[in-house]
């Protein structure tokens, strides 16, 4: 498969390594200030583009890839206020887009576990719930996309929480998310249920970028020759009921 990489930093290089190991070809890399490459024959020849950049540049990257008729797999977070535009491009203009707030297989199992636990805990109002997440100092958005996905899973299944708030909450209906930025930590997420009697914690601790990169390449393989707006639930067929 021919793959283009949009974003050629640490994650881009890790994706390249795994893609080559799996027999794919990297036909184009696009980094900062290289937007002219979107119009190149090399980029247009790609079966799929994998995009890991920044919240500020992500949306325009998607538009440029769509203009070249190249499907996109993206793991960039912090841009979701524009999600409607991307879904519309897929639904009405025949574009293909695969989005995940986290491509790690383990994290997506963690998402399913989080949803299931929230459904159980909905029966036990004596337990309050909060979240903590830690990432490397280079991460620009907070809370992380992964933390937001976890929070949405809790809000969908726990009646006593109505919204999430970063760092400080004002009332008991709000889910607190504490975000820390330390060193080169690839990602640590913890959901904590606590009562006067005890506490229940579930945690996912990423050891490196390798799991994220492998998931992105697997998503690219899944996306090839498909149409529409796709995600990890489509690929992994996880059922959190």
Q: Give the averaged pLDDT, no decimals.
A: 94
Distance between the termini: 35 Å
Q: Using DSSP, what is the number of strands?
A: 11
**CA-atom Rg in angstroms:** 19 Å
What is the number of helical segments per DSSP (H or I, 4+ residues)?
8
For the biggest sheet, the summary is: 6 strands, parallel
Q: What does the oligomeric state look like here?
A: single chain
SSE layout and pairing:
Elements: E1 2-6, H1 10-21, E2 25-30, H2 41-44, E3 48-51, H3 55-67, E4 72-74, H4 83-93, E5 96-99, H5 105-121, E6 128-135, H6 145-157, E7 163-166, E8 174-181, E9 188-194, E10 199-205, H7 210-223, E11 228-230, H8 232-236
Parallel strand pairs: 1-2, 1-3, 3-4, 4-5, 5-11, 6-8, 7-8
Antiparallel strand pairs: 6-9, 9-10
What does this protein structure show overall?
Helix 1 packs across helix 7 and helix 5 (105-121) runs parallel beside helix 6 (145-157). This protein is 37% helix and 24% strand. The model has no long low-confidence stretch (mean pLDDT 94). With 241 residues, the chain is of the alpha/beta class. A hairpin with a 4-residue loop joins strand 9 and strand 10. The protein contains 8 helices and 11 strands.
């Amino acid at each position: 498969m021919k793959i283009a990489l949009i974003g050629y930093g640490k994650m881009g290089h890790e994706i390249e390594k795994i893609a080559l190991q799996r027999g794919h070809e990297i036909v184009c890399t696009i980094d900062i200030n290289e937007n002219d490459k979107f119009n190149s024959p090399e980029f247009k020849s790609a079966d799929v583009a994998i995009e890991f950049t920044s919240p500020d540049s992500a949306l325009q990257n998607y538009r440029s890839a769509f203009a070249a008729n190249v499907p996109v797999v993206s793991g960039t977070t912090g841009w979701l206020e524009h999600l409607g535009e991307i879904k519309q491009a897929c639904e009405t203009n025949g574009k293909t887009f695969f989005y995940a707030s986290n491509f790690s297989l383990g994290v997506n199992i963690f998402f399913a576990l989080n949803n299931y636990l929230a459904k159980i805990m909905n029966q036990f109002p004596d337990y309050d719930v909060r979240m903590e997440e830690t990432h490397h100092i280079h991460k620009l958005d907070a809370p992380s996309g992964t933390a937001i996905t976890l929070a949405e899973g809790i809000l969908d299944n726990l009646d006593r929480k109505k919204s999430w708030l970063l760092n400080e909450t004002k009332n008991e209906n709000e889910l607190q998310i504490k975000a820390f930025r330390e060193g080169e930590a690839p990602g640590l997420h913890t959901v904590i249920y606590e009562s006067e009697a005890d506490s229940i914690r579930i945690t996912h601790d990423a050891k490196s970028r390798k799991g994220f990169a492998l998931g992105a390449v697997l998503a690219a393989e899944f996306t090839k020759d498909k149409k529409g707006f796709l995600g990890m639930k489509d690929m992994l067929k996880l059922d959190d009921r």
